[in-house]
Fold:
Amino acid sequence: MKVALAAAFAVSALLAAPVQAAPWAAAGDARLRTDVELLRAHGFILGPVNAWPLPWAQIDRGLARAEAAGPQPPHIAAAIRRVAALSAHHSGRSTYMARLSATSDATLVRGFERVARNQGEASVSAAHDLGALFISWGATWQSDGTTRQRATRDGNGVSPDPSHAALKLGNWALYGGWVETYWGPGHDGSMIFSTSARPFPKVGFRRLEPFTIDAPVLRWLGPVSFDAFVGMADEKREFDNPAIIGMRFAFQPTPWFEIGLNRGLMLCGRNRPCDVKTIGRALVGVGDADNTGTADEPGNQLAGFDMSYRRPIGTSGHVLELTFDTTAEDADNILIEQFARQIGVSVTGPVGEDGALIDAGVEYVDSQAAKFLGRLMGGDTWPGSTYNNFLYTDGWTYGGRPIGHSLDGDARAITLHAALTDTRNRRWHLAARHIDLNINGDQRFRISKSRERIGHFEAGVNWPSRHGDIRLEARLQHNAPDTLDRDPTWVQGEIGWVTRF
Structure:
């Protein structure tokens, strides 16, 4: 895998030709995501937007449509200005970024918004547009973890993220490096690939701007997008350095409805078979061919889909959003049956008449494997299945943290959230969560070895200034992971700063 990454960078350098700007907007900016989803709901941005990083080509096309449409209501016009300002920055020939974060303790829940994974974190990077070749290079340092949270203790120190290179080949990009991946419409986490763990090195290719398949029936899919990568969990595990494969095909069959189909695989690694036959069985296994229940099984596999429905409601300019995300473990039969799920509903729209924007809603996650509708229909459950595997016993993790939802498997949580972006582009946010962590006390899970019922509250602000964005957050948490005989109360604070130039 390391050889493949080096080869991808070398090929990119040799094939460079003229192109514009950064290839995509990175995951982690909740204000940008809210603005993009608002413009998508109003028909300016076309195509799937539930997977990040999101290509700037798709976003910029939407900005052009908005400009051609003429004057917009104040809250939409403000969103257009914010997105356009970020697009203009990332279109520079060379750009630079510095980020610092400090917290009394890492937050238990990691959603879409970028927060510190440990008590201290620092990142610097530079990006260069070299024609068809785009290069970002830099490093991120993460401090040691604490005894209070076992999931913070591994995978720390210096990492090359966010270093990567992307080569534009028409409307496609070949890329390699440390790219954060967040697939799914959820705001409080994602079921198959999230930013809970640090990014691992990968090579892949993806569509930059959605396209329509001009063929009978398939054209009904509407704008489609595709992303596929092969990465490596470059660390000591039960089988060192296993490969991680991700594939996503997403489409927009109606102006307001979006569907994404996802696959995730963990296979190969030291002392594991990694020949063409093994990989082929994992990718296109028919029936039980890839689920033998023996050491001959190719690897750990997940599959799932997500959906979102966003449309304006009434005449006020508000947008209703309904989301659903599910991922399933491989099962010993033809039909997939062991589902974990996440569902949400929210409303986004204007506050007053000067351009302020509010986004508020509720989100529920249940990561215990069950029949598709889970306990709603009294179906079977499979405790301990989600994110675990009998061969790859470290589970669906990297650096000791879940690659999927940050609360790991066998967890339930309901979140009430609200965020207000005011007329000075400050984003004020609140969230209240009730979390039931590791509901069966399964010792294989990483976040907590014991069942814990936790109350989690947070409030904060992202405050733009002349010298960068300042992020302040306060958190109150009742009970904590691995505290079976006590119920501690934690008060946490976090401060962050990011500047781009």
Q: What stands out?
A: The mean pLDDT is 91. The chain has one domain: 2-500. The chain is about 15% helix and 40% strand. The domain at 2-500 is CATH 2.40.160.130 (Porin).
